[in-house]
């Protein structure tokens, strides 16, 4: 059974992530847990009031707001189940959890208690402000979680009935073999081509070519029923090469393993994270070493 966690705050982008999770789960027995978090410290804006608004009985108002959001979560579950396709109804079980606390802390704690196969999170569109990046729950979870995290942009135009082309950014290290296995498990119901690509700033040396050959042989022997194309590409501008490849191959998902002290970890430098997480319409699946 595939286990997916989807945090929802009833925004368009979190609901878009839920739609994506439903498509991921419809072809395999799956459990989707919808999580909604209510803050421990409640401010006026959390209650829909202007800052500084005097409140006669704040505890009563907070309880009312909390109960309303609990009801919204259950209503979301009921509406989702009602509108699922027959295939989804057959394969998917939906649970809910209403938690008190900040979403980034709650998600990390729950993912330790009951490790999911993926946390599926919505992100705002690529035109949102820098504030969304710097204070983003999504970026915090991506950096700190020990389980895979799939970020789904609000205006992602991917066809949810298919996942055809996946770019797996790799350096062919040992941990990438493990992440590849997790990736294939998630996309195995779909007819997908995986492009396992190492992006270098210089021509591949002998060691790069040996690792590439070893990886190709491993994939040919281990994943005979899957199409995996691997290569080493090089250029002075990593992001330009990445963008060009995405457009050329019509990539549906970018996948990578977050590591330290290598070129992939540089993707999490703030300026580049902004590019990948918030200035692209392509979902990003992040594994962790």
Task: Record the SSE blueprint.
Elements (H helix, E strand, L loop, with lengths): L1 E6 L4 H14 L4 E9 L19 H26 L2 H6 E9 L2 H11 L4 E6 L6 H5 L2 H8 L4 E5 L11 E5 L4 H14 L5 E8 L5 H17 L4 E8 L3 H12 L3 E6 L11 H9 L5 E5 L1
Parallel strand pairs: 1-2, 1-4, 2-3, 4-5, 6-7, 6-9, 7-8, 9-10
Antiparallel strand pairs: 5-10
Helix pairs in contact: 4-6
What does this structure look like?
This protein is α/β, with parallel strands linked by helices and 289 residues long. The protein folds into two domains: 2-41 and 71-153, 3-Layer(aba) Sandwich (Rossmann fold); 165-282, HUPs (Rossmann fold, 3-Layer(aba) Sandwich), CATH 3.40.50.620. The chain contains ten helices and ten strands. It has helices spanning 12-25, 58-83, 86-91, 103-113, 130-134, 137-144, 174-187, 206-222, 238-249, 270-278, and strands at residues 2-7, 30-38, 92-100, 118-123, 149-153, 165-169, 193-200, 227-234, 253-258, 284-288. A ten-stranded mixed beta sheet has the order 3-2-1-4-5-10-9-6-7-8, with helices on both faces. Residues 129-135 and 262-274 have low confidence and may be disordered.
